[in-house]
Amino acid sequence: MMLDTLKTLLAVWGPTGQEGQVAQELQQMLADKADAMRVDVMGNLIVEKKGQPGGKTLMFSAHMDHIGLVVTDIEDTGYLRVTNVGGVSVDSMRCRHVAFGNGVQGVAVCQPTKGETAGMQHLFVDIGAQDRAEALTMVQLGDVCVFAPDCFPVGPHRFASPAMDDRCACALLAELLLQTDAPRNTVVGVFSVQEEVGLRGAATAAYQVAPDIGVAIDVTAWGDTPEVKLPAVKLGAGAAIKFMDRSMIATPCVRDALMAAAEKAGVPYQREILPFGGTDGGAIQHSRGGVPTGTLSIPCRYVHSACETIDMRDMESGLAILKEFVNGEY
């Protein structure tokens, strides 16, 4: 089930640049459903399902990485000084439970700023160490922590958790691969790395795969909470089909094919115009001599926080769209 897959992936530690545990979980999940599977030099997991003769190669990319904090120094008092890996804001980290890959737990805290604007230099992590020597038995410089896993329901259809960006899309892509047999077109699922620091994994994966068509799968922002109106996207109204963001303008034929797939599947969808941000689609579209590319988005409230919130009805809408799309004639 989609929800089980989602919860499994949300529980895995995997900050930007250290996505190996997520890739391992996906490999186990998809082992019996892949015609080919490999991890490339960047750490991207590339899963292939062969299509019919004469079909196209379709690349779908969902990123495994999760924003976090890297230890830059340890004070004599045992507190960890940190900086961001990806789009972490100080406000989102105030007094938040964080976890390191070795199991060490901590609290991210912003020190009093005495009239200054709070910045990353004011953030520290308390791991309960009495001094620097004890802290060094627990963590080292260069270790990375993320929001501790905490998936919980919000109403009858919604779930909140750290790492929804972009584990919800990884779950969606995994379910597409699990539920698709003998597709018309060859399906290459890329679970990419380092999206949060510049779409790095998708760039190298797209160069290797050389797809005929690319589709990024990611979250998008929301416009349905008080005083937040853009983008004009709502939770529960269906997956969103992107027209543009800061990284790409969707190729019209791919964008239109995604909307046609939604119509054929009989599921709701939304049109998305995002005035900021980007996805793996930007890297795919620029690969080699250019790749026709679109993006399917899952509306997500409170992106880059410890409580990123999605609606499972949008996930089901997205899966139905992609299942139709992989069997299209291109």
What is this structure, in a nutshell?
The chain has about 325 residues and is of the alpha+beta class. About 25% of the residues lie in helices and about 30% in strands. It has helices spanning about 1-10, 20-30, 90-95, 130-135, 165-180, 200-210, 250-265, 280-285, 310-325; strands at about 35-40, 45-50, 55-65, 70-75, 80-85, 95-100, 105-110, 125, 145, 150-155, 160, 185-190, 215-220, 240-245, 270-275, 295-300, 310.
Key traits:
single chain; 330 residues; alpha+beta; Elongation Factor Tu (Ef-tu), domain 3; eight-stranded mixed beta sheet; 9 helices; 27% helix
Describe, in plain words, how this protein is organized in 3D.
By secondary structure, the protein is of the alpha+beta class. It folds into two domains: 2-66 and 163-325, 3-Layer(aba) Sandwich (Aminopeptidase); 69-147, Beta Barrel (Elongation Factor Tu (Ef-tu), domain 3). The protein contains nine helices and 17 strands. The protein has helices spanning 2-10, 20-30, 90-93, 132-136, 164-179, 200-209, 252-265, 280-285, 312-325; strands at 36-39, 45-49, 57-63, 68-74, 80-85, 96-100, 105-110, 123-126, 144-147, 152-154, 158-161, 186-192, 213-220, 239-244, 269-273, 293-299, 308-311. Strand 14 (239-244), helix 7 and strand 15 (269-273) form a beta-alpha-beta unit.
